[in-house]
Design brief:
Length: about 260
C-alpha cells in the first residue's frame, strides 16, 4: 500500500486516539470492544486515493487491517497513560488543528478561484522582469575587496579565470571554473545582475562588485536571446503561487483583526 502522506498521518493521529467521540457512528471494525469509525476509514481511503492508489478490494482490505493495527497500538499507549503524558496531549491537539486548517484552506481556495486575467498579468510581469536576453557568466566570490582587486590584477596579467576561481567561496561554481550557466540577470542579486548586463562577451569586471555575499569578479562568456516558456506550460506554477499569496494575505488579514492578549 502507498505510504501515508504526512497530513494523513496527522489526521489519523488525531482521529484514532479520540475514537470514543465517534462511538455512535457506523464502525468498520471493533477491536477489544473499541469501534473504528467509518469516518476514519473513509478519510484514510480518501488520502490513499489522492496519492494514486486504486480504489479496489485490495486497498479497502489493506486500509482496514492498517486501522486495526493502529487501534491496537493506540490502546496499548492508552493503557500506559501516554495519551496524557508529556507533550502527547498537545501533539494530539496540533494534529486535529492541522486537519481543520487543511480543510478550511482547501475550501477557501476553491471558493476564491484565481482569475485567468490575474494569471496572465503575472506571467507578463515575470517575462518583463526576466528581460529578453540571458547570459552565460562565471565569477569568483571572495570576502575582501582587496582580494577581489588582486584577482582582477592577475586577470590583467593573463592568468586564467578558471584557475583563479578555485579560491572562490561559492561552492557551487568554484570547482567548475566559476561557471554559473545560462541565466537571466533578474535571477541574481541586483548588483551582480546590473554589472553582468554592462559587460561585453569575454569581458570581466574591472572593479569588484559588492553584494550581500561578498565581492565578485564577474566575466561574461556569452549572451543570447531568451525565449520564455509558453503560458500554458507555467500556468500550474502560477496558480500555485497565486494561491499561496492569497492564503498568506488571508492569514495576514485575520491576524490584523484578531484580539491577541
Amino acid at each position: 500500500m502507498h505510504n501515508i502522506s504526512r497530513l494523513a498521518a496527522l489526521l489519523l493521529a488525531g482521529t484514532i486516539i479520540s475514537a470514543p467521540a465517534f462511538a455512535q457512528s457506523k464502525a468498520v471494525a471493533t477491536v477489544n470492544g473499541q469501534a473504528i469509525p467509518q469516518s476514519v476509514y473513509d478519510a484514510f481511503v480518501s488520502e490513499q486515493k489522492a496519492q494514486g492508489a486504486p480504489d479496489n478490494a485490495e486497498l479497502q482490505g489493506a486500509v482496514k487491517e492498517e486501522l486495526i493495527r493502529r487501534e491496537l497500538l493506540a490502546q496499548e499507549a492508552k493503557k500506559k497513560g501516554l495519551d496524557k503524558k508529556g507533550t502527547v496531549p498537545g501533539q494530539i491537539e496540533l494534529a486535529k488543528q492541522a486537519v481543520l486548517i487543511r480543510a478550511f484552506l482547501t475550501d477557501y481556495v476553491q471558493a476564491h478561484p484565481i482569475s485567468e486575467d490575474r494569471l496572465k498579468a503575472e506571467y507578463e510581469a515575470i517575462k518583463t522582469n526576466l528581460g529578453s536576453t540571458e547570459y552565460k557568466a562565471r565569477h569568483v566570490l571572495v570576502d575582501k575587496e582587496d582580494d577581489a582587486k588582486a584577482i582582477i590584477a592577475k586577470l590583467e596579467k593573463g592568468e586564467k579565470f578558471s584557475e583563479l576561481a578555485k579560491q572562490s567561496k561559492d561552492p557551487g561554481s568554484k570547482d567548475k571554473g566559476g561557471e554559473l550557466g545560462w541565466s537571466s540577470p533578474a535571477t541574481y542579486v541586483k548588483p551582480f545582475g546590473e554589472a553582468l548586463t554592462k559587460l561585453k562577451k569575454g569581458e570581466y569586471t574591472k572593479a569588484p562588485v559588492k553584494s550581500d555575499f561578498g565581492y565578485h569578479v564577474i566575466q561574461l562568456d556569452d549572451s543570447r536571446p531568451m525565449t520564455p516558456p509558453p503560458y500554458e506550460q507555467v500556468k500550474p506554477q502560477l496558480q500555485q503561487r497565486a494561491s499561496q499569496q492569497q492564503v498568506e494575505q488571508l492569514v495576514k488579514d485575520l491576524r490584523t483583526k484578531a484580539k491577541v492578549n
